[in-house]
Amino acid sequence: DVKVTQSSRYLVKRTGEKVFLECVQDMDHENMFWYRQDPGLGLRLIYFSYDVKMKEKGDIPEGYSVSREKKERFSLILESASTNQTSMYLCASSLWDISFQETQYFGPGTRLLVL
Amino acid sequence: KQEVTQIPAALSVPEGENLVLNCSFTDSAIYNLQWFRQDPGKGLTSLLLIQSSQREQTSGRLNASLDKSSGRSTLYIAASQPGDSATYLCAVLGGSSNTGKLIFGQGTTLQVKP
Fold first, then answer.
1. Over the stretch B2-54, which tens digit does the pLDDT of each residue have?
2. In sequence order, which ranges of A1-115 are alpha helices (DSSP H)?
3. Per-window interface: B 19-58 vs A, CB < 8 A
4. B89 CB within 8 Å of a chain A CB
5. What whole-number distance in Å separates Cα of residue A88 and Cα of residue A85?
6. How many pairs of residues across A and B have Cβ atoms under 8 Å apart?
7. CB-closest option in B32, B46, B99 to A101
Protein backbone atom coordinates (compact mmCIF):
# COMPACT_ATOMS: atom_id res chain seq x y z
CA ASP A 1 0.00 0.00 0.00
CA VAL A 2 1.16 3.50 -0.84
CA LYS A 3 1.64 5.60 2.20
CA VAL A 4 1.81 9.39 2.21
CA THR A 5 2.40 10.92 5.60
CA GLN A 6 2.28 14.53 6.72
CA SER A 7 4.20 15.77 9.72
CA SER A 8 1.28 17.28 11.62
CA ARG A 9 -2.49 16.82 11.61
CA TYR A 10 -3.13 20.15 13.34
CA LEU A 11 -0.94 23.22 13.60
CA VAL A 12 -1.46 26.63 15.20
CA LYS A 13 0.93 29.44 14.27
CA ARG A 14 1.18 33.19 14.73
CA THR A 15 1.11 35.76 11.93
CA GLY A 16 4.60 36.34 10.58
CA GLU A 17 6.01 32.98 11.67
CA LYS A 18 7.88 30.78 9.22
CA VAL A 19 5.99 27.50 8.86
CA PHE A 20 7.23 24.17 7.50
CA LEU A 21 4.84 21.45 6.39
CA GLU A 22 6.51 18.14 5.65
CA CYS A 23 5.30 15.33 3.42
CA VAL A 24 6.90 11.91 2.98
CA GLN A 25 5.93 9.10 0.61
CA ASP A 26 7.27 5.57 0.74
CA MET A 27 6.60 4.30 -2.80
CA ASP A 28 9.44 5.92 -4.76
CA HIS A 29 7.04 8.20 -6.62
CA GLU A 30 8.55 10.82 -8.89
CA ASN A 31 5.69 13.31 -8.63
CA MET A 32 4.67 15.16 -5.48
CA PHE A 33 2.04 17.86 -5.01
CA TRP A 34 0.85 20.37 -2.43
CA TYR A 35 -2.79 21.51 -2.41
CA ARG A 36 -4.85 23.64 -0.12
CA GLN A 37 -8.54 23.00 0.43
CA ASP A 38 -10.99 25.72 1.45
CA PRO A 39 -14.79 25.67 1.77
CA GLY A 40 -16.39 26.95 -1.41
CA LEU A 41 -13.08 26.97 -3.30
CA GLY A 42 -12.28 23.27 -3.40
CA LEU A 43 -8.75 21.93 -3.84
CA ARG A 44 -6.22 24.25 -5.41
CA LEU A 45 -2.71 23.32 -6.47
CA ILE A 46 0.06 25.33 -4.81
CA TYR A 47 3.26 23.69 -6.10
CA PHE A 48 4.31 20.40 -7.59
CA SER A 49 7.54 18.58 -8.32
CA TYR A 50 8.44 15.99 -10.96
CA ASP A 51 11.88 15.20 -9.62
CA VAL A 52 14.40 15.93 -6.90
CA LYS A 53 15.34 19.62 -6.73
CA MET A 54 12.71 20.40 -9.34
CA LYS A 55 9.59 22.49 -8.67
CA GLU A 56 6.78 24.02 -10.67
CA LYS A 57 4.26 26.63 -9.61
CA GLY A 58 0.66 25.60 -9.39
CA ASP A 59 -2.33 27.88 -9.48
CA ILE A 60 -1.78 29.72 -6.20
CA PRO A 61 1.97 29.82 -5.37
CA GLU A 62 2.04 33.31 -3.85
CA GLY A 63 3.22 33.32 -0.25
CA TYR A 64 4.59 29.77 -0.46
CA SER A 65 7.81 28.06 -1.42
CA VAL A 66 8.79 24.39 -1.61
CA SER A 67 11.82 22.20 -1.21
CA ARG A 68 12.56 18.74 -2.58
CA GLU A 69 16.04 17.65 -1.55
CA LYS A 70 15.19 13.94 -1.48
CA LYS A 71 12.83 11.97 -3.69
CA GLU A 72 10.60 10.86 -0.83
CA ARG A 73 10.19 14.24 0.87
CA PHE A 74 8.44 17.40 -0.30
CA SER A 75 8.24 20.38 2.03
CA LEU A 76 5.91 23.34 1.84
CA ILE A 77 7.17 26.56 3.41
CA LEU A 78 5.13 29.56 4.43
CA GLU A 79 7.80 32.26 4.61
CA SER A 80 5.69 34.62 6.74
CA ALA A 81 2.37 33.12 7.71
CA SER A 82 -0.74 35.22 7.29
CA THR A 83 -4.31 34.66 8.45
CA ASN A 84 -5.48 34.04 4.88
CA GLN A 85 -3.25 30.96 4.82
CA THR A 86 -5.44 29.27 7.41
CA SER A 87 -6.54 26.18 5.55
CA MET A 88 -6.36 22.43 5.13
CA TYR A 89 -3.14 21.45 3.35
CA LEU A 90 -2.99 18.18 1.44
CA CYS A 91 0.07 16.49 0.02
CA ALA A 92 -0.11 13.91 -2.77
CA SER A 93 2.25 11.74 -4.79
CA SER A 94 2.10 9.72 -7.99
CA LEU A 95 4.26 7.75 -10.36
CA TRP A 96 5.51 9.56 -13.43
CA ASP A 97 3.64 8.22 -16.43
CA ILE A 98 4.08 9.59 -19.93
CA SER A 99 0.43 8.92 -20.65
CA PHE A 100 -0.69 10.46 -17.33
CA GLN A 101 -2.69 7.43 -16.28
CA GLU A 102 -1.45 7.14 -12.71
CA THR A 103 -3.65 8.30 -9.86
CA GLN A 104 -2.49 10.54 -7.05
CA TYR A 105 -2.25 9.23 -3.50
CA PHE A 106 -3.08 11.71 -0.78
CA GLY A 107 -1.86 12.19 2.76
CA PRO A 108 -4.25 12.75 5.70
CA GLY A 109 -3.91 16.53 5.57
CA THR A 110 -2.64 19.24 7.92
CA ARG A 111 -5.16 21.68 9.28
CA LEU A 112 -3.29 24.97 9.79
CA LEU A 113 -4.67 27.85 11.84
CA VAL A 114 -2.81 31.17 11.65
CA LEU A 115 -3.70 33.59 14.44
CA LYS B 1 -9.14 27.24 -18.70
CA GLN B 2 -10.49 23.92 -17.51
CA GLU B 3 -13.38 24.13 -15.05
CA VAL B 4 -15.01 21.22 -13.25
CA THR B 5 -18.50 21.44 -11.79
CA GLN B 6 -20.28 18.96 -9.55
CA ILE B 7 -24.02 18.88 -9.02
CA PRO B 8 -25.60 18.60 -6.54
CA ALA B 9 -23.42 20.11 -3.81
CA ALA B 10 -25.16 17.94 -1.21
CA LEU B 11 -27.39 14.91 -1.27
CA SER B 12 -29.26 13.00 1.42
CA VAL B 13 -30.78 9.61 0.69
CA PRO B 14 -32.20 6.69 2.68
CA GLU B 15 -30.12 3.56 2.96
CA GLY B 16 -30.53 1.14 0.06
CA GLU B 17 -31.20 3.72 -2.62
CA ASN B 18 -29.27 3.80 -5.88
CA LEU B 19 -27.90 7.24 -6.63
CA VAL B 20 -26.02 9.22 -9.25
CA LEU B 21 -23.48 11.99 -8.76
CA ASN B 22 -22.75 14.30 -11.65
CA CYS B 23 -19.56 15.95 -12.87
CA SER B 24 -19.08 18.22 -15.87
CA PHE B 25 -15.93 19.75 -17.37
CA THR B 26 -15.44 22.47 -19.95
CA ASP B 27 -12.41 21.26 -21.93
CA SER B 28 -12.75 17.79 -23.46
CA ALA B 29 -9.00 17.43 -24.08
CA ILE B 30 -8.36 15.35 -20.97
CA TYR B 31 -6.07 12.42 -20.24
CA ASN B 32 -8.32 10.93 -17.60
CA LEU B 33 -11.07 11.62 -15.10
CA GLN B 34 -10.93 10.42 -11.52
CA TRP B 35 -13.40 10.09 -8.69
CA PHE B 36 -12.16 10.47 -5.12
CA ARG B 37 -13.78 10.04 -1.73
CA GLN B 38 -13.01 12.29 1.24
CA ASP B 39 -14.15 11.57 4.78
CA PRO B 40 -14.51 14.57 7.13
CA GLY B 41 -11.13 15.99 8.13
CA LYS B 42 -9.24 13.37 6.13
CA GLY B 43 -7.30 13.10 2.91
CA LEU B 44 -8.63 11.86 -0.42
CA THR B 45 -8.92 8.24 -1.47
CA SER B 46 -8.99 7.32 -5.15
CA LEU B 47 -12.11 5.37 -6.14
CA LEU B 48 -12.04 5.09 -9.91
CA LEU B 49 -9.89 6.36 -12.77
CA ILE B 50 -11.32 6.44 -16.29
CA GLN B 51 -8.84 6.88 -19.11
CA SER B 52 -9.80 9.21 -21.93
CA SER B 53 -10.25 6.24 -24.28
CA GLN B 54 -12.61 4.44 -21.88
CA ARG B 55 -16.35 4.85 -21.36
CA GLU B 56 -16.71 3.46 -17.87
CA GLN B 57 -15.04 1.80 -14.90
CA THR B 58 -16.53 -0.35 -12.18
CA SER B 59 -15.44 -1.21 -8.66
CA GLY B 60 -17.85 -3.13 -6.47
CA ARG B 61 -21.02 -1.06 -6.04
CA LEU B 62 -19.48 1.90 -7.86
CA ASN B 63 -19.69 2.58 -11.57
CA ALA B 64 -18.27 5.67 -13.24
CA SER B 65 -18.99 6.70 -16.80
CA LEU B 66 -17.28 9.20 -19.06
CA ASP B 67 -18.64 11.05 -22.09
CA LYS B 68 -15.75 13.21 -23.28
CA SER B 69 -17.61 14.80 -26.15
CA SER B 70 -20.29 16.22 -23.88
CA GLY B 71 -17.89 16.90 -21.00
CA ARG B 72 -19.75 14.77 -18.50
CA SER B 73 -19.13 11.99 -16.02
CA THR B 74 -21.42 10.23 -13.57
CA LEU B 75 -20.68 8.16 -10.49
CA TYR B 76 -23.35 5.58 -9.82
CA ILE B 77 -23.56 4.09 -6.33
CA ALA B 78 -25.76 1.01 -6.02
CA ALA B 79 -27.57 0.01 -2.85
CA SER B 80 -26.17 2.88 -0.79
CA GLN B 81 -25.05 2.28 2.82
CA PRO B 82 -24.44 4.66 5.75
CA GLY B 83 -20.72 3.97 5.32
CA ASP B 84 -20.90 5.62 1.90
CA SER B 85 -21.49 8.98 3.62
CA ALA B 86 -18.61 11.22 2.54
CA THR B 87 -17.70 13.94 0.07
CA TYR B 88 -17.13 12.71 -3.48
CA LEU B 89 -14.76 14.70 -5.65
CA CYS B 90 -14.36 14.56 -9.40
CA ALA B 91 -11.05 15.60 -10.99
CA VAL B 92 -9.76 15.79 -14.54
CA LEU B 93 -6.17 15.52 -15.72
CA GLY B 94 -5.12 17.38 -18.82
CA GLY B 95 -6.99 19.90 -20.86
CA SER B 96 -5.39 22.33 -23.22
CA SER B 97 -3.66 24.49 -20.66
CA ASN B 98 -3.29 22.27 -17.59
CA THR B 99 -1.30 19.27 -18.76
CA GLY B 100 -0.26 17.07 -15.88
CA LYS B 101 -2.28 18.87 -13.23
CA LEU B 102 -5.48 17.66 -11.65
CA ILE B 103 -8.38 20.09 -11.69
CA PHE B 104 -10.98 19.32 -9.02
CA GLY B 105 -14.67 19.98 -8.72
CA GLN B 106 -15.95 21.26 -5.39
CA GLY B 107 -17.48 17.95 -4.48
CA THR B 108 -20.83 16.45 -3.60
CA THR B 109 -21.42 15.72 0.08
CA LEU B 110 -23.47 12.56 0.46
CA GLN B 111 -25.38 11.52 3.54
CA VAL B 112 -26.93 8.06 3.61
CA LYS B 113 -29.45 7.74 6.43
CA PRO B 114 -30.00 4.38 8.14
1. 899 999 999 999 999 999 999 999 999 888 999 999 999 889 999 999 998 99
2. none
3. 31-32, 34, 36, 41-46, 49, 51
4. yes
5. 9
6. 51
7. B32
Contact B44 A92 (CB under 8 A): yes
CA atoms within 13 A on the CB side of A51: 2
Residues contacting A101, CB < 8 A, separation 6+: B31, B32, B49, B51
Facing B102 at nearest CB: one of A101, A104, A107: A104
Cβ contact, residue pair A100, B105, below 8 Å: no
pLDDT in tens, B64-101: 999 999 999 999 999 999 999 999 999 998 766 555 67
What is the three-class DSSP state of A31? strand
First to last CA, chain B: 41
How many angstroms separate the CA atoms of B109 and B97, rounded? 29
The length of chain A is: 115
